[in-house]
Amino acid sequence: MTDLDNSSSANLSGCTLTILMPVRNEGVNLRIMLKMLRVLVEVPHEVVVVHDTPNDDSLDVVSELSSDQPVRAVHNKLGSGVVNAIRVGVEAATGRYVLIFAADEVGPVLAIEDMLALMDQGCEFVSCTRYAHGGRRLGGSVIGRVLSRAANRLFHWMAGSVLTDCTTGIKMFRRDQFETLQLESRPVGWAVAFEMAIKAQLEGFVLGEVPIISIDRLYGGKSTFQVGPWTIEYLRWFIWGLRQLKIKHRDKGTVLIRVPQSTAVGGKATR
Known about the structure:
By secondary structure, the chain is of the alpha/beta class. Helix content is 37%, strand content 20%. It has helices at 3-6, 27-40, 58-65, 82-92, 107-120, 142-158, 191-202, 227-247; strands at residues 15-23, 45-51, 71-75, 95-100, 125-129, 136-138, 171-174, 207-211, 213-215, 255-258, 269-270.
């Protein structure tokens, strides 16, 4: 463990929210994101940046900004991949709630207040949505956008998922319930987010959903999206989720929706 990995840990006792971001050379985007979080997040929180390699340019940003805000770097010792980064990050987290998302997205920042409001109202797992209640997705590859929208609509209809955007990586959950999900995803893209959404419904968690305007990768870095490997892993969870939710006739349950004023008129929670 480097000195940076130890930095700020003594000052990060239990807090309300841990913001967990897996990174791979996201220095430019991470700097922007941390500055936004410092201004917009009002609850006691910490930011845990999980990196795979010691030469990740994100570490320089964490080192520079850690004196002014509660951010620290944690090395992913379990191997590369978002699923392993989440495991390591949750283990290091001190917050009552954990929020995961990629450092290259802007949308999650504006949704944090509404996601927290749903958690405080009794939700145990809250997901953002780009495809309902006024949510939208901007940027990214055309094929990625088409596949994502089609897969989510089909899964919502065929499997009976109560969430309208299972594949988004923007999820908030109670830290003490994380182990209940028993993650099994392979370290391919953000397929783990799909798995988490399916298992949260299967476990009977109280679910919530917040629409966002998602903007993919504003600056720097390079997308790791690969059509072949990603499609295979997402398809694996699509079929598994279909069998579990539809064929086994699991209770659909309900989802609490909170529409922020930034995406539509409202801001109230409805079922």
